[in-house]
């Protein structure tokens, strides 16, 4: 009987052992199953779609360079910048001193002096400025003295017009949508980019460079003599040339550094009211009958705007470069 109880006990022990082991295995299976339900990390999933890289931003287009100015026919461009105005040389007059630095904006200036032929076109289009009709306040009695009515001297179409008052020169310049050069503009153009030189081409002067000293006894066609390094002809000799601003003997001592204009705040004030101006104006450059020292780039004189000269006074025009 005892043996039977031992057998039953062993059987129960075996059954309990198998049951416990089986339960443990089931729990492990449940843990594994739960783990399998966790979503895979998309960063490690080879089957996930690969994002395309963002395109590089397009480079900004380079700014277009400013267009080169279109130089009007018959003119040359004088570049913006500084130059030394005046002279301290031993032969310099008091009104040429002191030498001072001037900064000018870019401008255009006629390559040649205004000719008889060009001025005739003006008087034909503007009868009020013809020799027989000009208002007496705009000249001194010598206006276009060498003309016969509206006709310039025979064979001198390409010679510079002379016997022209400042008023008439201004009227012509306005008519062609230009103006007279300021004194500073005239001197910078005359120097041709050279520094500390007396003449537009250097320190020496001879009859192959300019028409002066009564050597020929008359004017010559414009452009007959070599241009300076800016491309400007006859700015020394042939005829004196009117400038825009007023003549002040001591102006250089107090001259503004940038775009100086004597007698006004700016060029527009003079251009818009030129018929009412009565104070002296500047003449520059010397003429066919001048002594060599009067052809120096720094030499300056002043006279009445009604003065029409004694056969050696003309002009050339300038124009502001539009921004």
- The neighbouring-strand order within the major sheet is 7-6-5-8
β-strand percent reads 5-15%
Largest sheet: 4 strands, mixed
Specify the number of helices: 5
Structural class: alpha+beta
Helical fraction = 10-25%
How far from one another are the termini?
Answer: 130 Å
Uncertain parts: 1-5, 7-12, 16-44
The mean pLDDT is: 88
**Shape label:** globular
N-to-C SSE string, H for helix and E for strand:
HEEEEHHHEHEEEE
Roughly how many Å is the radius of gyration? Answer: 46 Å
Task: Work out the number of β strands.
Answer: 9
Description:
- By secondary structure, the chain is α+β, with helices and mostly antiparallel strands.
- The protein contains 5 helices and 9 strands.
- It has helices at 2-36, 116-125, 166-175, 183-191, 267-271, and strands at 75-78, 81-85, 100-104, 107-110, 240-246, 281-284, 301-303, 313-314, 318-320.
- The strands form 3 sheets. Strands 7-6-5-8 form a 4-stranded mixed β-sheet. A 3-stranded antiparallel β-sheet has the order 1-4-9, with helices on one face. Strands 2-3 form a two-stranded antiparallel sheet.
- Mean pLDDT is 88; it is low at 1-5, 7-12 and 16-44.
